[in-house]
Design goal:
With 330 residues, this protein is α+β, with helices and mostly antiparallel strands. Helix content is 46%, strand content 25%.
Amino acid sequence: MKSKIPCEIVQDLMPLFIEELTSEATNREMKKHLEECNECQAHYKNMKSRLVGEKEQEEEKSVKEINYLRKIRRNNNKKVLFGILSVLLLLIAATVVKLYVIGYRVNSYDITYLNTDESQLNFGGIFYDISDTYKGYRLKTEEDGRKELILYARRRSLWSRERVFNLKINLNDLETEVNINGNTVKANGTVITKLANDLYNAKNKYVGDMSSNAKIASILGVPKTLGNFTNSLQTTKEPYGWTMDFEKSTSNSNIFEERIKSYACVLIALIDNLGEVSWKYTVETEKTPIERNNTITEGQCTEYIGSPIKSFSKSPEKVQELLEILKIEY
């Protein structure tokens, strides 16, 4: 049975039929018509070939566009990666130059000697970090006009291997007092140790302030040298007193007495209303431990030193003088 659909309608529907956008009923009628009509069949083949070609061209164009975009992205990724690597290399190079050539400020070092002669400051020591080696120093002027000596180090390398440093500086170059890691060197050559400066800054008006008392004792090195102790204060009447009861026994009472006597005089000097210091400890003997106790007063310290003991708290220079008289090392 011949199809009743006119060729014009079939040809109008043909693009939709080729794209498979027509219904099943339309598809049946279209196929039936194409089987019977040579003209529409030829038109169908021509249109399908053209549409498929256009579709392939579009797909090819899309593929080219996608490939182009991928190429751009790859190039951008390469540029970004190159930029990141360049920055990393610059940072590494800058770090290497800083650590091994230019150097950096160092505060962690042990001073082995610090003294002056008529015209020269002699200063030496060793860095705590074994990878630090001496690079140089700089005199930095502070806001108050005083100066600070800053040491610079660089990392240990084939061309820089020495941790020890020894400096000789003309006193005329100082012009004013210089701070060297807590120590003070005056323009006239006077040296005030870090210990003297720290003790002066920690001096205390009232013996009743136990935390301040303990700070002074700690700076002096009493616990480190003689061992831990418990405290008791006598503040009901003058002379106000501080008693230390040492936990650790000693086998040499002479050395213990000499050290605690020196420490006690410093404590009396730096605590304004402290009038006497007492101590208790145990001496180990061949037979049996013996408990000892002793006391030193303000008057006895003055007699021992040869000057009023309280006068040594007036300045860091006076504290330094007291330490030197008592042979307390820094």
